[in-house]
Specification:
Blueprint (H helix, E strand, L loop, with lengths): L34 E5 L3 E3 L6 E4 L15 E8 L4 E12 L4 E4 L9 E8 L33 E4 L3 E2 L10 E5 L11 E6 L7 E10 L2 E10 L3 E2 L2 E5 L38 E7 L5 E7 L8 E3 L17
Parallel strand pairs: 17-18
Antiparallel strand pairs: 1-7, 2-3, 3-6, 4-5, 4-7, 5-6, 8-15, 9-14, 10-13, 11-12, 11-15, 12-13, 16-17
Length: about 325
């Protein structure tokens, strides 16, 4: 009987074990996040166009995450901090020069400070219009009537006599007016006579206004009215004196009318002064003046009495 044979078996694989728990989710490629932020120094416009060039030089930016024709949303702030946002399409991506371009922007300009570019979906359709406009509501109640506009003007019944020494320039004049008017100290005022055809008035600077008493310092005066009815109001400052006018022509002593003194009505009222031109024995022209005579025979020919006297000055002889 032959000896028994021994058979050796290799390692036999066991049954498959259960599936282990899932590992953590892998991270996306660097730069493929939804949005990417850029500074001013990394983008510019093609000169004369509205095409924005963005340099994707930052190391965390992957140009492969963006595609030509893709609609993107760009948001940012201008140099004044105002928010701006716009959607546009990527028109080109240049891997050699490392920039991409976005066409037809209308809101971003050269002074934009910074931008954020995001993957953007297509703009959705416009929503339906609202319902018809409602009827106009009823008119609201009227508001309360405002206060009357009050200025520094009105009528005063204070008696002012412009012939009185107290109404000369430099004096203070006081008139009675309504209370509570906006008449401020330092303002300029005119007080004008209300009498028909009167041209009399006083002007000056308001010195004080208390209750119903307004006092002003007179610096301009016209006329000599004595009245108890005056208009008053704010006045402008008298302008500067104009330049002296041209010298008028010399008096023509060869005129036909030899009367040389008239009043403003064209009459002499008895104070008749005439002249006559003649020649002396040397042949020189001589102008002679006649008072109450139209044919003077001497240099001064007075047809009437003549009085020459010394008028003593006021306070003489003690001044």
């Amino acid at each position: 009987m032959s000896a028994p044979k021994h058979i050796y078996l290799g390692n036999i694989l066991g049954a498959t074990g259960p599936v282990g728990p899932a590992g953590p989710a892998g991270q996306s490629a660097i730069g493929c996040n939804n949005c990417h932020f850029f500074y001013t120094s990394l983008f510019r416009y093609l000169e004369g166009t509205n095409t924005l060039m963005i340099d994707f030089g930052p190391p965390n930016f992957q140009s492969s995450c963006w595609t030509v024709g893709e609609l993107v949303t760009i948001t940012g702030k201008d140099m004044f901090g105002v928010d701006i946002s716009e959607q546009a399409v990527i028109s080109s991506i240049n891997e050699v020069s490392r920039f991409l371009t976005i066409d037809n922007l209308t809101k971003f300009f050269h002074w934009t400070y910074s931008i954020t570019m995001c993957h953007g979906g297509n703009i959705g359709p416009t929503g339906p219009s609202g319902g018809p406009m409602g009827a106009t509501g009823p008119i609201g109640p009227s508001g309360n009537q405002g206060e009357d506009c009050r200025g520094c003007f009105g009528v005063s019944t204070t008696n002012l006599d412009l012939n009185n020494p107290l109404t000369v320039i430099g004096e203070n004049a006081t008139i009675t007016i309504a209370e509570g008017l906006p008449c401020l100290e330092g303002a300029r005022i005119r007080v004008h006579d209300r009498t028909l055809d009167s041209t009399s008035f006083l002007e000056g600077t308001i010195y004080s206004y208390e209750n119903n008493q307004l006092t002003f310092t007179i610096d301009y005066k016209n006329g000599n009215s004595n009245s108890s009815s005056w208009n008053f109001g704010i006045a402008g400052i008298v302008g500067a004196t104009g330049p002296i006018g041209l010298v008028g022509p010399e008096m023509n002593l060869n005129a036909e009318d030899k009367q040389i003194i008239f009043n403003n009505l064209g009459e002499a009222k008895g104070a008749k002064v005439f002249y006559e031109t003649t020649f002396n024995i040397s042949g020189e022209e001589v102008n002679m003046l006649g008072v109450l005579t139209s044919a003077p025979e001497e240099t001064l020919d007075i047809n009437g009495s003549l009085k020459i006297r010394l008028v003593e000055p006021i306070g003489w002889p003690y001044n």
